[in-house]
Amino acid sequence: MTRLLLAAALLTAATVAAEDRKTVIVFPPTSTAKLPEGLTIAIAEAANAALAPTHNLLHARQLLAMTSRHRMQLSDLSEPNTARAAAQRLGAHIFVYSTLQEDKTGWTLTTWASRVGSPKTATSTVLLPLTITSALQKAGGALADAALRYDGRGAHKADLLTPYNGADDAMRDYASCAATLLKQPIGIENPPVLRENELSYAVEQCEKAVKTDPSFGAAWAALALGAAIAGNDARAVEALAKAPAHLPNAMLARFWLVSRYQSTDAAEKLLVETIVKAPGFLLARAYLAELYNALGRQAEAAKAWEAYADHTSPNPFVISKLAYTLAKMGKADASVAYAEKALVYDSTSVELNLELASRYLDAGRVEKAIATLEPFAKQPDVGAEVVLRLGYAKMMKGESDVAEMLLARAITLAKEPSEWRTRGRAKLNLAQLYLKKGHQEQAKQSLLEAMKEGLRPKPAPDTKELMALLSPDELKSFETENGGVKESSPFGLKGGEVNPAAKRTDVPSGFEAVKVK
After folding, report:
1. What is the DSSP string of 15-44?
2. pTM beyond 0.85
3. Which uninterrupted H or E stretch holds 292?
């Protein structure tokens, strides 16, 4: 299939879905009772399965990413105004939130469904049994029905929840696995540092679930994704063969495997076909856009982000992604306009303000970048990335002493293994600063420290003179060194960055390739 036909298929799916579908976010129920680990997230996931044929859905991974950025707890989402604000940030039209209260005979699930921009709220109450699987089935269906009724549709079809029908012991292990797996970031452009202990725990829990109940489809899908993220591709292939292909975790696991063992063309085709089959799977649309970003196909990325936007209400996430993509296309002024627009919907977001500051820097508006960053840099819980960006802006302005202080502070603040890029960029910026001051030895040492972190500066006008300070032997010594971090990506990794052209040759037995002409 040519790229033109791929785009046509995507646009067709977008048009049909945009006319008939609304985007729904189902928040996991909140409860003061002690529930099995991950059960409320599994309930929301089951509700999504029941809504998949009729609505666009925001995945729990997208919800957790948003709550993490805003330092929110899932328990906050039982408060109406908080739930409404979260739904708007995510681009939902309809949102459903709920509470679980326990008594001697079971749980009482109270649900509220509403729409962003409307005061109308519909409330319902359902009694749930104490048995885990039965409670999940009934609760997932009730949350789906709350959204369906609010949207003027009929009740869900019970067979859509079949993959979530595990034995009670298996359900406990699966819920724990699925909730833990969601904490593992799986971005495309920036490979995440593995949270190895959490990931190992998730895989172990899923293995227990499928051993207890070999017919448990959702557990096999979660196991496939967990194994793929961990790099155990042979086990991922085995699990994927037993997982229902339409489940989100199964679709994501297949994308990772196809990306690793075939090509980016095959990965692209798989995502487009997934979107055609499941037009409401918004996470697949985000993956497609990010794939184009990673491949440098920015015009196609912009179209893919716009297609995503067509399926949601206006939201800062997609607008900021368009700002980023336009910046990559060299459209600095347009990227600034989009970054400013994103803040209209979420003015307090640190990430969106960082995005805006970066776009100001791209456009040469250094003073505006500094003005954007300084209020956040003064906060007691400021993050390393804010301080790094402000230090770089001060360096661009020529305030070298202030810049040096800020960059050194960014290194101190970036304590987590996952922040190695922040430490590396701060050390690289310090090296550039020292070189401007004529301190070549300091510049060289700071550059070497940046590379020890794992950073591999690309040849560019602003690094050419700096890189010339290193001998051929010094450069060669970093060819295989990765800074000691363990990362995971659906693509090959080289120098701390994704390498979409890389392809593994040790194909696992049973791997199903995508047919690409």
Report:
1. HHHHHH--EEEEPPPEESS---TTHHHHHH
2. yes
3. helix 282-295
